[in-house]
Amino acid sequence: MNIGITVFPTYGGSGIVGSELGRELADRGHNVHFISYELPTRICQLSERMKFHEVEMFTYPLFEFPPYDLALASKIVEVAETEKLDLMHMHYAVPHATAAFLAREIYKPIRYLPFVTTLHGTDITLVGAHKSFLPVTKFSIEQSDSVTSISQFLAAETSRTFGYEQVEIIPNFINAEVYYRRDNRALRQQLAPNGEKILMHVSNFRPVKRITDCVRTLALLRARCEQCVRLVMCGDGPEMEKAQNLAAELGVADDVFFAGSVPNIADYLSVADVFMLPSETESFGLAALEAMACEVPVIATRVGGLPEVVREGETGCLVPFGDIQAMADCAGKLFDNEALRLEMGRRARAIAIEEFTTERVIPQYIQLYERVISEKIGKTSRQSHR
Q1: Residue 52 host element (H or E)
Q2: Which of 165, 181, 291, 298 is the most buried (most CB within 10 A)?
Q3: What superfamily in CATH does domain 185-355 come from?
């Protein structure tokens, strides 16, 4: 199949999943065409079966905010013609599904170009539900040839907010051959030179990720044991400066390491002792799954889709949102009991492999593509013969 994929090329779950999905599809012999304004974050190397088509923005004084959705729709039409696309897969409802609908309508006199929309979270719970976007989000979802979501939680939210029930749940995934615990003593020595335990967080540092809660948790842990733990923060985003200022205010600035947007996150997860995800909401929690695959117990808030990924008492701890003391208590318990921490890590990987690997999830997408193409092309063929 010739498949077009559009994602936001950022250090966030939807961009990572779309990137990894494209790579997996290419490895299975399909031709993948990424269509976006930048190369997706996890795609470091293109190939004969994996290509990138840049959406070029037109700047004009009349446009205070250049219309990206229109430029994207035009680029989809162009790529559909030159690369003979069979289907588009849009990650995020707005503006991507909206652009795909417009492209499909433009291209319809030539050929019907079906599109699948995958809902990832804030496109439903925050952005899409805002009164400025709700009607167009609802329309774009309903016009999609198929809609998937990454968790039961998000499917329920889609039904509640938009009244749309035909959502197929296909969870996020990891490649077990990429995400596994490896020996990296040099990196561990760099991050914890005095043998400290490593508490790690990975995200795009948006407000919803609550990264300052990680800093406050570290301060509580350091009050118990001055030389026992360091916090490693992987990622970048608008909350970084606030977290840095708070670390200085609480006197733990020397114990927080901001690693930036590291390309090989499995290397960092492999030296972590405990992973922390104190989010206000998560539709799935891909970062938690990646940590689990690297045998790292997860402390997360009991919100959104996280309970579908993290098993309380089995692979980590789930705590009430905003309960920093509970997070510190869970981390301290795991740091103090190495046998428990290692057993939770082993169980975390076992569940990740059992339920969320590429071997289990990618075929679900391929089957979906084949079904949509067959149904929609067959339907348009019957209509053309009437």
Answers
A1: strand 50-54
A2: 291
A3: Glycogen Phosphorylase B; (3.40.50.2000)
User: Domain locations in the chain?
Assistant: 2-173+358-384, 185-355
Q: Is the pLDDT of residue 86 over 90?
A: yes
What's this model's pTM, rounded to 2 decimal places?
A: 0.89
**Residue 196 near residue 285 (C-beta atoms within 8 A):** no
114: tokens are 């079906």
Here the tokens at position 378 are 């067959």
Is the preceding omega at residue 66 within 30 degrees of 0, hence cis? no
Cβ-contact 54, 37 below 8 angstroms: yes
Predicted confidence (pLDDT) at residue 298 exceeds the cutoff of 50? yes
Q: 229-275 pLDDT, tens per residue?
A: 999 999 999 999 999 999 999 999 999 999 998 888 999 999 999 99
Is 113:88 a contact under the CB 8 Å cutoff? yes
Sign, CA dihedral 127-132-138-141, equals: negative
* CATH assignment of 2-173+358-384, among 4.10.220.20, 3.40.50.2000, 3.60.10.10, 3.40.50.1000: 3.40.50.2000
